[in-house]
Amino acid sequence: MTQSNHRVRNVVFALAVGLSLFQLWQSTSGFLSATHARPIHLSWVLALTFLARPFWKGEGPAPVWSRVFDLWLAAASVYTGWVIVGFDYRAIDHILYGLTTHDFIVGLLFLVLLFEATRRAVGWVMVAVGGVFVLYALLGHLLPDVLANRGFELERVVRFQAFTAAGIFGAPLGIAAGTVFIFVLFGAFLEVTGAGRFFIDLAFAAAGRYRGGPAKASVLASAAMGSISGSAIANTVTTGALTIPMMKKLGYRSEQAAGIEAAASTGGQIMPPIMGAGAFIMADFTSTPYKQIVMMSIAPAVIYFVCTLLFVHLMAVRLELKGMDNPPPVRETLRDGVHFLLPLGLVVALLLANYSPPLVGAIGCLAVVVTGMTRKQTRIGWRTILEGFKAGAMLALPISLACATAGIVVGVIGQTGVGLQFTESVVQIAGGQLWLALILIAGAALVLGMGLPVTAAYIVIAVMAAPALQGLGLSLVVAHMIIFWLSQTSNVTPPIALAAFAGAGIAGASPMRTANEAVKLSAGFFIIPAMMAYSALIFVDGTSVGSFVFAIAATLAIAASIAFAIEGYVIRACASYERALFVLAAMLLLYPGFVVRSAGLAVASLTFLGHWSRSRRGQG
What local confidence, expressed as pLDDT, does residue 93 receive? Predict the structure, then answer.
């Protein structure tokens, strides 16, 4: 390593630690207003991105011009951020006469810097989405009437995006810079203190001895860690590095092992209490208390993981797999790491008590470090603590950049009114049919999710599509919950299934075959949103306990019927007519209406009982 690279690495380390410390201070003190804190956060993120992710990707040391270019971009990020922070929002001149030439150039440069940093950290697709919406604001008057807007001058677009709280510095960045950053930092501290490994070991201790034990442990560990990590891909890589080789050793095919891990890791994003920060975003967008969002999410999340575990179990039984020979003992595992349950319990308790999420996240970070100090084997030094600060900041970079670019989209939608046009178009195309609107939104979620992080995809689709679902009779929170679930599907659905592809890389498997396995194991992502729309699966005001329980039973029966039909196995191999009956039961259960669903439950139950009886006679 050259001396120059060593200096840059030290600067990156210092900037990353500084960013984490700044966010912790802001979260606990709330000293700065949003109009100051958000530009500081984003300009810091931009500068860090340009230094940590250099322009030069070629072999060998970067040429001097490339290093100078990155340094210039970092310096420009600091300068433009400083100008925006010092901008006088209360003055009326910029409203009456527009921005000064200097402010206009600064705002335009900041927009360009954001796109370049997003390209480096997130990818071209996110840049393309933001760029298309900017062009729409500028050139919308040239489009056909159904898509047209009045068209805005470049100065007005720049002013709206960079010098108001409705564009780049709007709600998406506010959530990312506040709550999401702190909980990503919390997850980083869980990793550096060894708590992450404890949860994986605990999952193996609990499930390892049963059929397909490592696969079931993978599902449990990913449910626990995925809720905190905020990234299905990161969860797949971290837990999959341990679980995928063990599943292969046990007898699962490479594609099956990688697909199981991808499905489980993606499911972690919908698992309360943190839901990959989705709960906080949804609470802000719907003005619903965080506690209520969490309580609504428990039943659907549990059903999803029951469905995934059922697929895993059926695979293990069909392949005649056994459990682990020497799983870690539960008692010893708990003895060595039970103290790590305290920070999680504290965080959940404080969140449910309606304390400020950023403050709770900061307390959680401190609690993880303090509890780690109570045991010799988990005690860490200052260097490791600083590494935790750095890791948290680096993990948060793509999230903040994606949310800032998503803010551009949200801003353009608000400035042009295209959201209302989109809502009217969806309702018109769907012809008032909710099921067709759900298919259209699911398709949009899949396409956008191929290039956007889940958080950004959810924000963009929710702003556009939630009003359409409301217009078709769904409540605001149910509409957002459906969109949030559908936004996850791109992680496991071909042709670009990022979590599945990450798992395939670890397993040495075919990416497309892995994605096909992951889709099967993630059937809940398609079943459960439909049941949210057509049943009382989301417990909102006015929902009766009886209808809620019936919805849970019906959804579980659909998931089981589909699993039995796809795998062709229950207790033993299914006959062709049994698989057909399970398909019929699933179709009846999906159809809204108590009578039809009751018939579906009856068909599923009688088919299962008949199979069980036939299996007993065969054994006898």
Answer: 67
Tokens describing residue 271: 């698992």
For residue range 498-508, list pLDDT tens digits in order. 788 888 888 88
Q: How far apart are CA 470 and CA 477, in angstroms?
A: 9
3-state DSSP assignment of residue 573: strand
Residues 6+ apart with CB under 8 A from 620: none
DSSP state of 92: S
Q: Within 10 Å of residue 329's Cβ, how many Cβ atoms?
A: 10
Kindly indicate the confidence band of residue 540, based on its pLDDT and cuts at 50, 70 and 90: confident
Four-residue CA torsion sign, 329, 504, 219, 265: positive
* Amino acid making up residue 570: V
Mean pLDDT computed over every residue of the chain: 87
pLDDT at residue 244, rounded to an integer = 87
- The residue length of the chain stands at 620
Q: Which residue has the tokens 């922070």?
A: 85
Predicted pLDDT of residue 265: 87
Distance CA 565, CA 201 (A): 33
Residue 136: how many CA atoms within 13 Å on its side-chain side? 22
DSSP at 593: S
Indicate the pTM of the whole model.
0.83
Region of poorest pLDDT, from 29-33, 317-321, 468-472: 317-321
Helices 434-449/476-486 angle, 10° precision: 40
Cis check: omega of the bond before 273, within 30 degrees of 0: yes
Residue pair 206/218 in contact (Cβ under 8 Å)? The answer is no
**Closest of 301, 27, 29 to residue 185, by C-alpha:** 27
